[in-house]
Amino acid sequence: MKFRVKAWSKTGRSRVGELQLGSCPYTIETPALLLSTRKGLPHFISPQLLPSLPSPDSFLLQCNPLHFIEGISFETISKIGGLHDLLGLREYAIAAVPRDSDVCLPESNSTNKFGASFETPSGRHLIKPVDYMNMISSMKPDLWTTLADEVPAWVSQNRNRTSVDRTVRWVDECIERNVTGGAVFGSIVGGSSIEERQRCAQEIARRNVSGYWIGGFGLGESMDERPALLDVVMDNLLEEKPRQIFGLSLPEEVLQGISAGVDLFDSTYIYDLTVGGLALTFPFDGTDPRPSNYQFNENASDFTKINLKATIYRKDESPILDNCNCYTCQNHTRAYINHLLNVHEMLAQTLLEIHNTHHYLALSSFGEGVRIKSLQGPYFVGGFSVNYSGL
Amino acid sequence: MALRFEILARFNRARAAELILPHFVCHTPLFMPVGTQGTIKGLTTNELEEIGCQIILGNTYHLALRPTSELIDEMGGLHKFMNWPRALLTDSGGFQMVSLLHLADITEKGVTFQSPVDGKPMLLTPEESIQIQNRIGADIIMALDDVVKTTITGPRIEEAMYRTLRWIDRCIKAHKRPDEQNLFGIVQGGLDPRLRDICVKGLVERNLPGYAIGGLAGGEDKDSFWRVVAQCTASLPEDKPRYVMGVGYPLDIVVCSALGADMYDCVYPTRTARFGTALVPEGVLKLKHKAMAEDVRPVDPTCKCMVCKNYTRAYIHCLVTKDAMGSQLLSYHNLYYMMKLSRDLHSSIIQGRFPQFVCQFLQKMFPEGDVPEWVCNAMEVAGIDISSCCAPFPLSEDEHLTVCEAR
Ligand SMILES: [Zn+2]
Ligand SMILES: [Zn+2]
Q: Which one of the record's GO molecular function terms can you name (chain B) (predicted)?
């Protein structure tokens, strides 16, 4: 892995950088999104259509090793040659993160000193560092994050302290057992406690890791308490190493993370939109399209996205978004997608995931857009304003 | 008539032809995938083109319910609505009603059925079926026929056949776009050769752009099935396309093509994909099976499709029946398999090696030489010598014959 911070915001903590990962031949500009996957492939976009997504921004995939607990053995994955060969995506950079936000969630009540517990479709699983490292060594991801004990915001101080202790211990155990060449990102937790966040960040910063994975967000804390938590973490990390976060997924959350100096985000939001029949439409020109009191209006739009299930789109012959050059907008109308949603045809999700991925990638990257804007101070992207501490 | 049908080559009864439709030049023999509601199983129209799909089916009954034929018409027709540049075919809607709805009742006027929207009785007449199909705008439209199960016997079969003939005139009369859409008539008559013969004669007199053989693939025994196909193909005009409705097993397609049929449709390849089954030269591969979890070979090592080039059986195994991507990838492979089969049938006839192709096909599917008797019988009528694959290798020429005859 190679990472370089290219520029810092003059007034704040935002930064833009360059990341090169494993077998991916492209240099990816940060802040960047990792595309969320199910068993390594985007949920509905066939591998044939992946290349139609913006390149190279779409070349970072996030894969959850726990998706493979059932159905295929890790020996078989290893025999096939690891994730890249399993998925037929040899030029993609794959980051392994042992959780996601829809089918495999941390179950902190059952996590114990031996390992972390997760709720999955095949039941609850307790994953010990040794199990996890077996998965990693057979999957050979380009980047992997260490096992963490993530707890919700409302747990006791004691439980929170334990979670930091375990997470730090597991970083050591994972690194000790590591036999792959992939970059290691040390996990940082600490819930809603400034002190624990600081303690965890300091401990991890002392370890031999290539970057940091910040967990324990999106677990019940309020958006307002995040900036301070993020700041204390960032203050204790080495600046030259990349920072990946989990749990900041909505556009305003991604911008919040960018403002705090996060480099890599997950894209659960795209999946949520897609299965909800929603399509992103926010503009990138820095304007705020929303009236002060916005809600879904009679056009089934909240000015950042539209609900394509709404009857108003039944005969709408325009693409989701004029001037969008994604496969969906180049080929299909709102009316057709509305029909597909009405009759529960899978192509609706395929087309929506393509458009939403295309559009959301542009939020974090947008070439000259957010990356540059994030260095310049308070800004709007599609009506998502970011304006706090230091920006 | 809005088509041209040019036979490029023949092998006995089998034909390879170009079917020139308003939106695409199709090559026959040809499998037509079913895209019931204006789409096929998460595959984009680009992917369908890549796979080699030339013409796809829309189901009039479903499309008329949602989004409605009026809306499709307003959007410029189904081609434009779903952005499919190649050919389309719509069925009459009658079959879907009879097979999907319990309360369908057929009278001289048409098919009466209970609306799935509000439960009210509705009537689909031949005129209305054609009007709806005119609005949808497919290259080929189908006449409304009186469908009865092939397993039914007695006077109902005869009644249905004669009604189908009376309805064809109403369909022809109602058809408003004969210069852009081709109306195919459907041969009915159950398993009764006499009735089939009357129906063929009646339809041929109407000089339609193409003919379909209906009422099959409904549970009749295979020997009756191929004999009806053989009888109809023998008496239908040489210069018109022949479409066997509802047929989609690869073996059936090979047999029917040998007997002179040109077009087929079936939901089988995509439906079976949804249940985790892949079509392979050896027959089918059930990817749900536990043994697949450790199998690092492609679904079909001889297949050149995107799925077989990139994925192992083990990976597909862990996707099928659980994740959307599983049925997407298997549908892709299965349709690729069907289109490759169509291309191979076409080119082997053109290149004069149709019997060799049939033998190779049968050898893969029946490596023990246990080719079903009905296939042997049909191939004999088709004039295709399959003796070389009808028994294991060491048998002599004479023994082949005995084995075949003994079945
Ligand atoms: Zn788009
Ligand atoms: Zn294949």
A: tRNA-guanosine(34) queuine transglycosylase activity
| CA distances from residue B292 to A32, A59, A88, B284 in whole angstroms, order as listed | 37, 29, 18, 13
| B300 catalytically annotated | no
Q: Which one, of A68, A65, A37, A67, lies nearest residue A53 by Cα?
A: A37
Position B407, amino acid: R
Q: Calculate how far, in angstroms, residue B333's C-alpha sits from the geometric centre of ligand 1.
A: 27
* Contact assignment for B47 to A49 by CB distance below 8 Å: yes
Closest Cβ–Cβ partner in B37, B71, B293 for A314: B71
Distance B345 CA to ligand 2 centre (A): 18
CA of B301 to the centre of ligand 2 (A): 8
For the CA atoms of chain B, what is the radius of gyration?
21
Identity of the residue in A68, A77, A343 whose CB atom sits nearest the CB atom of B66: A343
Say whether B44 and A327 touch across the interface (CB within 8 A).
yes
Cα–Cα distance between B259 and B254 in angstroms, integer?
A: 9
Residue of B290, B325, B332 to mutate when probing chain A, most A C-beta within 10 A:
B325
β-strand partners of B58: B90
Contact A71 B328 (CB under 8 A): no
Contacts 24+ apart (CB under 8 A), A370-375: A370/A31, A370/A255, A370/A258, A370/A284, A371/A16, A371/A29, A371/A30, A371/A31, A372/A16, A373/A286, A374/A9, A374/A14, A374/A16, A374/A31, A374/A255, A374/A258, A374/A259, A375/A7, A375/A8, A375/A9, A375/A10, A375/A14, A375/A15, A375/A16
**Contact call for residues A139 and A65 (beta carbons, < 8 A):** yes
With a cut of 70, which residues of chain A have pLDDT below it? Answer: 285-299, 364-391
Helices marked H in A151-267 — which ranges? 157-177, 194-205, 226-235, 251-260
Report the complex ipTM. Answer: 0.94
**How far is residue B147's CA from residue A243's CA, in Å, rounded to a whole number?**
66
The alpha carbon of residue A109 is apart from the nearest alpha carbon of chain B, in Å, by 28
pLDDT tens track, chain B, 407 positions? 899 999 999 999 999 999 999 999 999 999 999 999 999 988 999 999 999 999 999 999 999 999 999 999 999 999 999 999 999 999 999 888 777 766 688 999 999 888 887 888 889 999 999 999 999 999 999 999 998 877 788 899 999 999 999 999 999 999 999 999 999 999 999 999 999 999 999 999 999 999 999 999 888 999 999 999 999 999 999 999 999 999 999 999 999 999 999 999 999 999 999 999 999 999 999 999 999 999 999 999 999 999 999 999 999 999 998 999 999 999 999 999 999 999 999 999 999 999 999 999 999 999 999 999 999 999 999 999 999 998 755 445 554 444 444 43
Measured between CA atoms, the residue of chain B closest to residue A70 is B318
Q: What is the pTM of this model?
A: 0.95
C-beta separation of A45 from A35 below 8 A: no
Q: Does the annotation list A24 as a binding residue? A: no
Could you tell me the two tokens for B97? 């009603």
Q: Which two tokens stand for residue B77?
A: 């027709």
